[in-house]
Write a structure and sequence with these properties.
This protein is an alpha/beta fold and 409 residues long. The chain is 42% helix and 17% strand. It has 15 helices and 14 strands. Helix 1 crosses helix 15, helix 2 packs parallel to helix 3 and helix 11 crosses helix 14. It is globular, with a radius of gyration of 21 Å. 49% of the residues are buried.
Length: 409
C-alpha cells in the first residue's frame, strides 16, 4: 500500500507532531508499505531554516525508507496569528500540486494541529481518487481562542465550519485523545469513523539511564535536584508559572533545587528577560538540541514539569512528553487538568498540580524531593506504564485503521 502523508512538521524538527509522524511512518515502511511524506523546509519553532536545508520550490530526500518531498512555504516564527496563517496557507497551496506529482497513493493522510494541511490532504485525495484520513492532534481553531491569540470573530466561525466539513469528508478520523473524540461526537461527527490512537514513546530511544556526567558539570548542576521543562516555549504553556515557582524556592533558600528549560518558542525571549528581572539564580535556559541529543538532557532531570495554560480546552490534551518521561522513569510534576492528569494518577507516575499555580508547583516539587520513598516509587512505575504506550505498537494500530479505510483489510 502507498501511504501519502501531509504534515508541516517533520524531522529534523523535534516537536511532537514531527516525532509522531516520523516514528509512525518508519514503522509502516518496516511493515512493507511505501510511504511518501509531503512537508516543508524544517524551521519550527523559530522560523529559521535548519542548517543544510533551503526553502526551495521542491526538494526530495529519503529518511529511513520514507520518501520525503519538501515544498516551499512562507516561513515565520511560531507566533502571531496572521503570519502563522500565511505560513499554513502557503503550505496548503504548494503541498496540493506536489501531491499530484507523486505515485498514485492508496490513501492520503493529513495531520493537524492546523487544518490547512488537512485541506490540502482532502484536495489531493479527491484529485487522486483516494480515501482521506484526518489525523486530529489539536482542536484548531478552538485552540486559538484558548491561548488568546485571537478574539471571537466571523473569521473563526468560518474556520470552524471548514473544520467540521473536513471531519465529515474524512473516511476515518484518527484522534490522539478520547476527549477529542467526544468533542467531535458532540458536534455530530459519525462516531464509528473516529478511532483513538494516543501518542506514545519510542522505547528504543527513551529508557531509564544515569545522568550525563559531562552535561551535569557543564551546566553547573552538580549536587542539584533538577526540575526540568523540555519542549516548546509557547503561549499555550504559560511557563511564567515555573519562573514564579523558582522565585518562591529561591526565597525559601532551597538552593538544592534548580530549574532547567530546554527548547525554543514564541515566549522564550520574554521568559529569559523575566528570569533576569526576577534575579533568578536557580534557572538555566538551553536552546533546542537535535533529537539524538535530547535524551542526554532528559537524563539530567529528577522531575519533569509538564504545564499548559488553565483553560477548558487543554483538559482534552495529552502532552506527548508525558510518555517520554514515563519511559525514562522520570517522575512528572503535572500541571495539566483532565485526561492526561487521569493517566498520571492512574499509572502513579507523578504528582498533579493546579495549572498556573506556582505555589502548588513548588509544593509538588518539594513533596517528591523530600519523600525518597515516593520518588523511588514514581521512578519504578514510569517504565512499566510506558509499555502501554509503545510507539511501535501504536503505529501498527493506526496502520490497521488506514488499511481499513483503503479497503485493504
Amino acid at each position: 500500500m502507498h501511504i501519502l502523508f501531509l504534515t508541516d512538521n517533520f524531522p529534523p524538527e523535534v516537536n511532537a507532531p514531527a516525532s509522531r509522524t516520523f516514528e509512525h511512518c518508519r514503522e509502516w515502511v518496516k511493515e512493507g508499505h511505501r510511504v511518501t511524506v509531503i512537508t516543508c523546509a524544517p524551521n519550527f519553532p523559530n522560523g529559521k531554516v535548519f542548517e543544510g536545508y533551503r526553502n526551495k520550490l521542491i526538494a526530495r530526500e529519503e529518511m529511513e525508507g520514507i520518501q520525503v518531498v519538501r515544498v516551499w512555504s512562507y516561513i515565520t516564527a511560531n507566533e502571531g496569528f496572521l503570519r502563522r496563517t500565511l505560513d499554513y496557507l502557503s503550505f496548503m497551496v504548494f503541498a496540493t500540486p506536489a501531491g499530484l506529482r507523486v505515485q498514485r497513493p492508496d490513501i492520503v493522510v493529513a495531520t493537524s494541529p492546523q487544518f490547512f494541511t488537512a485541506c490540502a490532504g482532502y484536495l489531493v485525495s479527491r484529485l487522486r481518487n483516494a480515501p482521506f484520513v484526518f489525523e486530529l492532534r489539536d482542536l484548531w481553531p478552538e485552540s486559538i481562542r484558548a491561548v488568546g491569540a485571537m478574539k471571537q470573530s466571523t473569521l473563526l466561525d468560518w474556520l470552524e465550519k471548514l473544520e467540521l466539513f473536513l471531519y465529515r469528508k474524512a473516511r476515518v478520523v484518527v484522534s490522539v485523545t478520547e476527549a477529542f473524540k467526544r468533542n467531535l461526537v458532540e458536534r455530530r461527527i459519525e462516531p464509528s469513523k473516529i478511532h483513538v490512537v494516543t501518542n506514545g514513546a519510542d522505547l528504543s530511544l527513551f529508557r531509564p539511564q544515569c545522568k550525563d556526567v559531562d552535561l551535569v558539570r557543564s551546566l553547573g548542576l552538580t549536587g542539584k535536584f533538577v526540575a526540568g521543562y523540555i519542549g516548546t516555549h509557547g503561549m499555550a504553556h504559560a511557563l511564567e508559572t515555573l519562573l514564579e515557582a523558582a522565585r518562591l524556592l529561591q526565597e525559601e533558600k532551597r538552593d538544592d533545587i534548580h530549574f532547567l528549560f530546554l527548547g525554543d518558542g514564541a515566549s522564550k525571549a520574554n521568559l529569559q528577560r523575566c528570569a533576569v528581572g526576577m534575579r533568578l539564580r536557580n534557572v538555566t535556559f538551553v536552546d533546542t538540541v537535535p533529537k539524538a541529543e535530547v535524551v542526554k538532557y532528559w537524563s539530567l532531570l529528577d522531575v519533569s514539569i509538564i504545564h499548559l495554560r488553565k483553560t477548558d480546552l487543554f483538559t482534552t490534551v495529552i502532552p506527548s512528553k508525558l510518555f517520554e518521561c514515563m519511559a525514562m522513569g522520570i517522575p512528572v510534576v503535572h500541571g495539566v487538568a483532565g485526561e492526561s492528569a487521569a493517566i498520571v494518577k492512574g499509572e502513579n507516575v507523578g504528582v498533579p498540580f493546579e495549572p498556573e499555580s506556582a505555589c502548588e508547583l513548588k509544593t509538588s516539587v518539594l513533596r517528591i524531593l523530600d519523600n525518597p520513598e515516593l520518588f523511588a516509587e514514581l521512578r519504578r512505575n514510569g517504565p512499566i506504564a510506558a509499555a502501554h504506550y509503545d510507539r511501535r505498537v501504536l503505529a501498527r494500530e493506526m496502520l490497521q485503521h488506514l488499511k481499513s479505510a483503503a479497503g485493504r483489510c
